Give the backbone structure.
Amino acid sequence: MTWTIVVGVKQVPDAAEVGIDPDTGRLDRANAPAVMNPPDRDALEAALSIKDEVDARIVAMTMGPPMATPVLEEAIAMGCDDAVLITDRAFAGSDTWPTSLTLAKAAEKLGADIVLAGEETTDSSTGQVPPGIAAHNGWAQLTYVEAIEPRPEENRLVATRDVEGGYERVAADLPVVVAVAYGEFEPRPAGLHRKIYAENDFEPIEWTAEDLGIEDEVGLDVSPTSVGGMETVQPVERKGEVVEEIGDLADPITEVLS
Amino acid sequence: MSEQNDAGIDVEEYEDVWVFVEEHAGEVMPVSWELLAEGKKLTEKTGENLVALVIGEDLENVAEEALERGADRVLVADDPVFEPYRADPYGAQFRAMVEERKPSIVLIGGTHTGRDFAGRVAVPTHAGLTADVTEIDVDDDGLLQARRPAFGGDILATILCEEHRPQMATIRPGVFEPGESDPDADDGRTADDEAIIPVDVVVDEADTISEVLEREVGDTADITEAERIVAVGAGVEGDLGPAIELAEALDAELAASRAAVDEGWVDGSRQVGQTGKTVRPELYVALGISGAIQHIEGMNKSGTVIAVNTDPNAPIFEHADYGIVGDFADVCPELAATLADRDLTEVVQ
Ligand SMILES: Cc1cc2nc3c(=O)[nH]c(=O)nc-3n(C[C@H](O)[C@H](O)[C@H](O)COP(=O)(O)OP(=O)(O)OC[C@H]3O[C@@H](n4cnc5c(N)ncnc54)[C@H](O)[C@@H]3O)c2cc1C
């Protein structure tokens, strides 16, 4: 049997390129280039490592504007077999509830045995989408996963999860949603031929909310949460003094401790 | 008469503030008591009950402690199916309790466990779930104001859930003070006003879709209470000796960036940052930490921040009060010796 592995990837502003506005001292995101959410690269690597051991087909999926296509091309370049762009104005304003519904429906339509994702995104950092996908479909879930052992003969996946103060090994029935811990799967570089193919010849499948049969269940209106306000947080004032001598460091420490 | 809103929900039907008390084999996660104390403040405003939820096996002591720490009632789901923790049985049980008893607000610790199963309750009940909250309040209508940092902590967004219930939030460990335990807190209740309520267990082992094969957990450190912290990053390259020497000189707890935790040098319970703990010591010394926004978020409530880094352009210097450009392996012993010369031990006591 061939496993179908679906990997969720998202386009986010590059956190490393977010500069500090010299006038306000605040982060300036507007000019940051869009990149793949770094934890999702680990998820792609995890998918490819399963495929190294088990007969599998890997499909990357993203929910976003057509502008997000480069993250799918990157996934193809890394070694995914196919990719789906889920795009529709109807999705605008979706919180984690409709977002995870959308991805759950797409995973179901793709016949996923395993859905992989990064532990959270760097732009919204809820970590709630992978468990949400599992909950919508009534599937098993494994989060904070550091290592994966595929068990095709048992139709299960065994994973090592980070639990605070230790670890555990859990076996889950398929289909299963796996959120990998960031930093645990070193992403492999894309091959040159795959890169050329991804950028020149590859076209992702495109699905709308209607294609997934959820046009009335997505967007701002069905999102249980809404943003009630935004306050800018005053950056914590720090002295920012760089000293030359150890003694100059010991002085303020002595002062704090006395 | 039910007054349904556009989402088909009568919000008046929902009342009480629930706090999930997370325990593993009888050990309660400290964030649970932080939430119980914070939940109490909400019920003092709304005039509702504060209800603790305990799921696991052999829970009498945990349930008693929840009462001593201020819960008006404790709902207990006690069954071997819940030990050790798994997302599917916890989610199914919690969901059944929510559907039957209709709480208005549900607070869950933003631990790996809390963030793992919260969605399995919020999705099927179509509840609003706000993740990784750092401030909560409630307005006159009982509407929860859940605030969470956005854009790397630059902005605090208030998230509301107006039309759906319950209003759920996972809350970051370490941001609230735990309350004191009062052994007499549950006095004065009569037998027919039983405060510990066993609930029906709706989960059957035969229906579970996951199995824990092995579980290894050591002691978890609670760095959120530390007055002084020496934190190490990727820059120490596994050489913890100098950091420990300095920590001892300062009578400080050891903590770490995520990079150092991922390398396995320091246990995950000592991780500071967005996906770790929020700390607020009077002194925070960062050794070989670059100062990524995800790290800064967890330590920017510290009093005095000292940074040691070989790279003069490391962002940590902008988030520190005093910094020195240098190798931590040289700086730590010299600093420890200088402090010892000043007889700091006396000052510390
Ligand atoms: C979803 C997500 C969540 C995250 N959550 C967290 C979190 O909770 N906490 C967290 O910390 N990070 C978190 N991160 C990771 C964060 O982005 C950074 O990667 C991490 O904080 C870097 O750790 P570091 O500063 O120790 O390592 P590096 O960035 O590698 O920095 C090492 C530093 O050490 C210095 N150095 C090297 N040698 C020496 C020496 N001999 N002496 C002194 N200095 C030296 C270097 O100049 C450098 O500045 C998260 C990332 C993501 C994507």
User: Anything to note?
Assistant: Chain A touches chain B through 76 residues (CB under 8 Å). Residues 15 and 244 of chain A are 31 Å apart (CA to CA). Chain A has a mean pLDDT of 94. The first strand of chain A starts at residue 3 and ends at 8.
